[in-house]
């Protein structure tokens, strides 16, 4: 089984500089016009920079989850409204799906 350090696109590595954290990044990206690129990079971050990066990633993940939750809630409200309209006879379902 491959370990997390070799399969993750972002890995934390040991830094030989005092007060630093080493990171390595490996990304494969593809553009709209079928172009692609592979990005491999490694650098040392200070502990403060590492904490700021971690917080920025957490904030971005929280925003993405909130967006998905909001869409799910909107879809549920839309479905409830549709069901009420059908039950009241103000909307007729055409086709095979109710």
Q: How would you describe this structure in keywords?
A:
3 strands, single chain, alpha+beta, 98 residues, 2 helices, 27% strand
Report on this model:
This protein is of the alpha+beta class. It is built from 2 helices and 3 strands; from the N terminus they run H-E-E-E-H. It has helices at 4-7, 47-88; strands at 10-13, 20-30, 36-46. It has a 3-stranded antiparallel beta sheet. A hairpin with a 5-residue loop joins strand 2 and strand 3. The longest helix has 42 residues, at 47-88. It starts with a helix and ends in a 10-residue tail after the last helix.
Strand order of the largest sheet: 1-2-3
Low-pLDDT stretches are none
- Give the C-alpha Rg: 24 Å
What percent of residues are in strands?
Answer: 25-35%
Give the H and E element order: HEEEH
Secondary-structure-derived class: alpha+beta
Q: Describe the main β-sheet briefly.
A: 3 strands, antiparallel
Cα-to-Cα separation, first versus last residue? 47 Å
User: Quick one: how many beta strands?
Assistant: 3
Write the layout of secondary structure elements.
Layout: H1 4-7, E1 10-13, E2 20-30, E3 36-46, H2 47-88
Antiparallel strand pairs: 1-2, 2-3
What's this model, at a glance?
The protein has helices at 4-7, 47-88, and strands at residues 10-13, 20-30, 36-46. The protein is an alpha+beta fold.
């Amino acid at each position: 089984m491959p370990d997390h350090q070799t399969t993750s696109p972002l890995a934390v590595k040991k830094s030989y500089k005092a007060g630093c954290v080493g990171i390595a990044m490996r990304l494969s990206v593809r553009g709209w016009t079928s172009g692609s690129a592979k990005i491999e990079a490694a650098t040392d971050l200070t502990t403060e920079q590492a904490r700021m990066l971690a917080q920025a990633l957490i904030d971005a993940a929280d925003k993405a989850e909130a967006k998905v939750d909001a869409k799910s809630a909107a879809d549920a409200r839309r479905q409830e409204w549709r069901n009420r309209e059908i039950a009241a006879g103000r909307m007729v379902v055409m086709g095979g799906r109710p």
